[in-house]
Amino acid sequence: MLIEVIAIRAEDAEAAYAGGADRIELVSGIAEGGLTPSIGLVEAVVKTAPLPVNVMVRPHSQSFWYSEADLSIMLRDIRAVREAGAAGIVVGVLDEYGGIDRAALERLLNAAEGLDVTFHRAFDEIADQVNALRQLAEYPQISRVLTAGGLQPAPQSADKIRQLRMAGDALGICILGGYGLHANNIAGFVRQTGVREVHFGGGVRQAGSFKEKVDPELIRGIRELLSRLQE
Predict the structure, then answer these.
(1) pLDDT at residue 77 in the model
(2) Among 153, 219, 190, 229, CA closest to 3
(3) 1 closest CA partner among 212, 208, 206, 200
(4) Which of the ends of the chain has fewer CB neighbours closer than 10 A, N or C?
(5) What's residue 231's pLDDT?
(6) Which DSSP helix (H) or strand (E) runs through 1?
(7) 89 and 57 Cβ atoms separated by less than 8 Å
(8) CA distances to 58, 63, 185, 226 from 211, in Å
(9) Where are the domains of the chain?
(10) Calpha distance 76→156 (Å, rounded)
(11) What's the pTM?
(12) How many Cβ atoms sit within 10 Å of the Cβ of residue 229?
């Protein structure tokens, strides 16, 4: 089982590594669902912890449809993220009808050549998620899709996530389950869905609050629970 942890500061990445996380998703603006962090923060986090760091590339929180000006900024951010030494990017683009904006996505993927790519929870706003997953699986650069199966917390959509995970297995693309996961529900969620990658934000912080730092002990506890499932 792979554990991904959201970091919003360098100390979070250090704590995630100490707790046994496998990968960092680095973001700013967490109250807005995650925005592109500063390059200074990217550089600091890459140096702080010997974990893969995947960086959110999202210029604003108004929507997941992006103008030409937005895309120009995203392309520059991807180049800067690469130069800062990050392992990958986390990105999602929708068209005006709520489907995947394939033309925009392909431009971003071209700029991200050689980087690990996660398609983020913009996916959860798509009506036909199975068809969207098929489209994303056509791009070998996209390793995984982060999803809660919809707009509700992931445990409430476990059946849908299981369907997506099964479809993803057949298509060769990973489903990363996330949103609303913590130590008290992770074992049941993994049993129900069969996912092999899980994503934590508030669930690895005291009181589930992003005002608190990442707690290594909470990650260790989750790792122990997941290890028991594999015995």
Answers:
(1) 98
(2) 219
(3) 200
(4) C
(5) 77
(6) none
(7) yes
(8) 21, 25, 22, 26
(9) 2-229
(10) 37
(11) 0.96
(12) 11
Q: By three-state DSSP, how is residue 213 classified? A: coil
H, E, C per residue of 162-184: HHHHHHHHHHCCEEEEECCCCCC
Look at residue 28 in the predicted model and tell me its pLDDT: 98
**What pLDDT does residue 217 have?**
98
Coil/strand/helix, residue 230? coil
**In the structure encoding, which two tokens stand for residue 218, read together?**
């909470």
Return the structure tokens found at 65: 């449809």
Q: Which residues pair with 94 in a beta bridge?
A: 100
- Say if CB 99 and CB 133 are below 8 A apart: no
Contact assessment for residue 145 and residue 118, using Cβ atoms and an 8 Å cutoff: yes
**What pLDDT is recorded for position 84?**
97
| Per-residue CA distances from 50 to 7, 21, 24, 87, 113 (Å) | 14, 11, 10, 11, 22
Contact indicator for 120, 56 with CB cutoff of 8 Å: yes
CA dist 149 and 136 (Å) reads: 15
The CB density around residue 86, as the number of other CB atoms within 10 Å, is: 23
What is the per-residue pLDDT for 143?
A: 98
Q: Reduced to 3 states, what is the DSSP secondary structure of residue 117?
A: strand
pLDDT beneath 70, residues of the chain:
none
DSSP-based three-state secondary structure for 2 = strand
**What is the DSSP-derived secondary structure letter of residue 157?**
G
Helices (H) and strands (E) in the chain, counts: 8, 8
* CATH architecture of the domain with residue range 2-229: Alpha-Beta Barrel (3.20)
